Amino acid sequence: MASLEARSLDNPDETRTPDKTQVDVVTVGGNEVGRFTFQPGWRWSECVKPVAGTDSCQMSHLGYAVAGNLHVVHDDGTAADVGPGDAYVIEPGHDAWVVGDDVFVGIEFKSAGEYARG
Fold first, then answer.
1. CA distance 57 to 48
2. pTM of the predicted structure, to 2 decimals
3. Quick check: 25 and 15 in contact, CB under 8 A?
4. How confident is the model at residue 2 (pLDDT cuts 50, 70, 90)?
C-alpha cells in the first residue's frame, strides 16, 4: 500500500533557538527535515559553537537555500558561497556566516535532527 505524509515546517515538532538561529524540525516518513533560519550577523563560530561544543561545525549538511547568502569555509581553507536556489552539500569541519543584510533560510535533509542541539 502506498504511503503519503505531509508536514508543515510552520508547525514544527521541535524548534531550537541559539543566538541569531532558528531551527524548525519536522519528522515526515521517519525522516527529519529542518528549516534553518540565520539572522544577519549570524556566524556558526559565534552563535552555534557554544551549543555544539566543537571548534568547527561537525555536521554534514544536505540542503536547499531558499533565501539569503551564506559563506562557508572548511577547516582546510576551501570556501564556497551558498545562495537562493542552490542545492548544497557541506561536509563536517567548517565555519559559516551570513553575508549581507538578508536572512538566510535553508531547508536541510541530513543534519536537521542534531543541528544546534546541546
1. 8
2. 0.94
3. yes
4. confident
- Grid cell 538578508 is found at 102
What's the start-to-end Cα distance of the chain, in Å? Answer: 39
Cβ 106 vs Cβ 66: under 8 Å: yes
Local structure of 45: helix, strand or coil: helix
pLDDT tens, residue by residue, 48-80:
999 999 999 999 999 999 999 999 999 999 999
Look at residue 117 in the predicted model and tell me its pLDDT. Answer: 83
The 3-state DSSP composition of the chain as helix, strand, coil percent (nearest 5) reads 5, 45, 50
Contact predicate 72/90, CB 8 Å:
yes
